[in-house]
Amino acid sequence: MPQSIIKVEHLNLSYKNVQAVRDVSFTVNSGELLAVIGQNGSGKTSTVECVEGLRKPDSGLIQVFGKDPWLCRSEVYKEMGVQLQETAYPSKLRVDEQCRLFASFYERPADWNLLLAQLGLDDKRKRPIHKLSGGEKQRLSILLSLMGRPKLLILDELTTGLDPEVRQNMWAGFENIRKSGVAILMVSHYLDEVEALADKILYLEKGKQQFLGTQQDFREYVKRRVPKSQWREDCSLEKLYLMIAPKTTGLTMEGIL
C-alpha cells in the first residue's frame, strides 16, 4: 500500500493584509507526483514553502513523514530533496566542490560522480558555478536535490532554461524516480511537463484551491466550467488550462507606435 508522505489540511497563510493561501488541502503518497499549477500570485510557492518548513502557516495541518515540517525541519530534511527555481551558491565555488559539500551532509549520499555524467555536467566539474549557463545551474540544482537519496522531492520549475532534448531526458529520469517509490511535489508553468508526469493536479486561483484530482478529472472539471461551444475532447492540458485561467490584459501597440 502507498504510504502517505505529505498531508495538508485547511492550510491558510497571509502576508499582512493579503491572504496568499486559503483553505488548501491535499495529500501526496509514495510513488505519486502531484503538480501544482496556477498563475503567478496564485499561492503555489507559498503553499510549497509551508510544506518545506520555510514558512509557518497561520492555520491548518501540515505533516511530512508524519511530522510538522516547521517544528521538525532538520528531521524532515534528512529524507527530502528540494530543487529551487533560483539558487545562490558561494562565489567561485567549483561544481565538484559543491557536490562534495552536499555529500558530506548525508550518511549515505548518492554517487554524485555518476549523477554528473547522467546530467551532462561531467566536463563542468572543475568550472566555477558562477560561470555555468542558466541550464547548467538548473541541472546542478537537480543533482543536489538528489544527493540524499530522498523519499520526497520538491521541484520548482523543473526544466526552466533547459533545451528540448534535455527536458525529455529529465522527464524520463523523474518518471523512473517516481516509479521507484519517491513522492514528488512539483510546481510548473509548463503544462506539457505536467501532462507528461503528473498523477494528480492541484489548481490554485488567487490562493484558493479550485481543483484537486487526476488529469482525467481535470478534463471533466474544465468541461463543466466552459460553454459547450468552446469544448473539444482532444484538447491538450495546456489548452484546457487556458480555457479557465483568469484572463490578463494583453500587450497592445497602443502607446508604443
What does this structure look like?
- This protein is of the alpha/beta class and 257 residues long.
- It contains nine helices and nine strands.
- It has helices spanning 44-51, 73-76, 95-103, 112-118, 134-145, 164-179, 191-197, 215-225, 237-244; strands at 4-15, 18-29, 33-37, 59-64, 80-83, 152-156, 183-187, 200-205, 208-213.
- The chain has a six-stranded mixed beta sheet, with helices on both faces.
- The longest helix has 16 residues, at 164-179.
- The chain is globular, with a radius of gyration of 19 Å.
- The model has no long low-confidence stretch (mean pLDDT 91).
Report low-confidence residues grouped into runs of 5 or more.
none
Radius of gyration: 19 Å
Instruction: Tell me the fraction of residues in β-strands, as a range.
Output: 15-25%
Order of helices and strands: EEEHEHEHHHEHEHEEHH
How many alpha or pi helices?
9
- Mean residue pLDDT: 91
Termini separation comes to 62 Å
Number of strands: 9
Major beta-sheet overview: 6 strands, mixed
User: Overall 3D geometry?
Assistant: globular
The SS-based structural class is alpha/beta
Provide the helix percentage.
25-40%
What strand order characterises the main sheet? 5-6-7-3-8-9
